[in-house]
Specification:
five-stranded antiparallel sheet; alpha+beta; 19% strand; two-stranded antiparallel sheet
Length: 461
């Protein structure tokens, strides 16, 4: 990896090659390693992914999980990572289901399409271990408890701290250990002498069975239960919701029989659960915003019909925001992330202003100028169309830099700018075509509201 990245941090850059590297690090530990790099040009950070992946995937059997740091994720790439947790009572059953799940994920999300799959802990990192399994009947016959037997084996093998002795103002551990502690062979372990409570001396092989096993280097637990996790980071072109739907509807049903036979459970978490919670919270926020706007307009307009007419502009604005995102994705990829969804909440309070102006102006013509309802609607439209377009155009031109200007971090604000731009533009045009006919249809409530809503501010004596 260093040989691959060295030319980039030394400035030997090809015209059409990867960007220059400003920082590079590599850390190795027992069972794996991780590395990272930052580009001199922040806009080209994604181009460093194949640079780091190439040397790893060129090694037979080696696997890598390459991700770009996320501003809002708790870890590197956390905002796009889907975790599938397999929990159960035994490591063997969990490993069986995890291996099958990993194979199905490899088929549905091929690696050659920039999908990345990682199993934690790895399926192929077993280490040889010597397992001492006590025999309950032999221990009972010898009058020895399981705890006493385990302590005796620990003393011979690793040593055990008996107490702490104060020497020179410091507490020194007093450790009782065998003469060959830490250097026992399998034969030595079988012949270790164990003194029973009855005074008999027996070997470990008489009280327990010794076997060689391949055990995982790491045992992960979730809520006290053993777990293995499969992390999936789908290609940027695949929506996160589509990836979650593929897992729940296509992959997990194929594992139902295997899951029941091994008595395990599979939970989809990570960005998948965050997406569900975020989507529900966003729906509640939009509904709450619409409810507050409606109640406020009911108080101001003293009518339930007119606020309902105004709120009809909000769905049109939402369609405009989605259309804006669709047009933007023809040129630049922009996902529907958290900030982008906030744009729809902003729209609910912005797009109703034009409709409020037209209704209020119509009420003033009816109340103060004594106009007929249809005549007041037409006059209000003529009076308000210019200020509506002036205020809308200034807002749209102010949003253009957010939409079209590139640069580091532009993916954070480009989505929200596009949603507000598209929603405001479409809702403005729709307001001029929707509100006047709807006001004419609601001439009765409009006339009654204009008779009671007096908006002149009188100076107090």
């Amino acid at each position: 990896m260093e040989a691959t990245a060295r030319p980039l941090w030394e400035g030997r850059i090809e015209p059409d090659g990867p960007p220059a590297i400003s920082r590079f690090f590599f850390v190795a530990y027992a069972g794996g390693a991780f590395a990272g790099a930052a580009s001199v040009d922040p806009r080209r950070i994604a181009d460093l992914k194949p640079v780091l992946m190439r040397p790893v995937f060129s090694e037979p059997g080696a696997r890598a999980f390459v991700r770009q740091a996320s501003l809002f994720g708790r870890s590197v790439g956390g905002s796009r990572s889907i975790s599938i947790n397999v929990t159960g009572l035994s490591q063997e059953s969990i490993q069986t289901v995890t291996a099958a799940l990993n194979d199905l994920l490899q088929q549905s999300f091929p690696r050659n399409q920039d999908n990345q799959i990682r199993v934690l802990p790895s399926l192929n990192t077993g280490t040889p271990q010597i397992r001492v399994t006590p025999e309950p009947r032999a221990l009972a016959a010898a009058g020895m408890s399981l705890q006493a037997f385990a302590q005796a084996v620990d003393i011979y093998n690793d040593g055990m701290r008996i107490m702490q002795v104060p020497i020179g103002g410091e507490l020194i551990d007093l450790v009782l250990s065998g003469t060959k502690a830490g250097a026992l062979s399998a034969a030595d372990l079988e012949n270790l002498p164990i003194v029973t409570p009855r005074g008999d001396i027996m070997s470990v092989s008489q009280l327990a069975s010794i076997s060689f096993v391949s055990a995982p280097q790491e045992i992960r637990r979730l809520g006290g239960t053993q777990v293995m996790s499969v992390q999936l980071r789908p290609d940027e072109a695949i929506p996160l919701e589509a990836a979650v739907r593929t897992i729940n509807q296509d992959i997990l049903p194929q594992l139902e029989t295997l899951i029941k036979d091994n008595n395990v459970r599979i939970d989809v978490s990570g960005a998948a659960s965050e997406l569900t919670r975020t989507w529900r919270a966003m729906q509640n926020n939009v509904l709450a915003a619409i409810a507050v706007i409606f109640l406020l307009m009911v108080v101001l307009l003293r009518s339930f019909t007119l606020p309902a007419i105004i709120l009809l502009v909000i769905p049109v604005a939402g369609a405009g925001g989605i259309a804006g995102l669709a047009v933007l994705n023809l040129f630049v990829r922009q996902s529907l992330d958290m900030l982008t969804m906030l744009g729809f909440v902003i729209l609910t309070g912005v797009v109703v202003n034009n409709a409020i102006l037209m209704i209020e102006q119509t009420s003033l013509h009816i109340h103060e100028d004594r106009m007929a309802v249809n005549e007041a609607i037409l006059e209000a439209t003529r009076n308000r169309i210019r200020p509506i377009f002036m205020s809308t155009l200034t807002s749209l031109f102010g949003l253009i830099p957010l939409v079209i200007f590139p640069g580091a971090g532009s993916e954070l604000y480009r989505g929200i700018g596009t949603v507000v731009f598209g929603g405001l533009a479409l809702s403005t045009v729709a307001t001029l075509f929707m509100i006047p006919p709807l006001l004419a249809a609601a001439s009765g409530p409009l006339a009654r509201a204009s008779q009671t809503a007096v908006l002149n501010i009188e100076e107090a004596d």
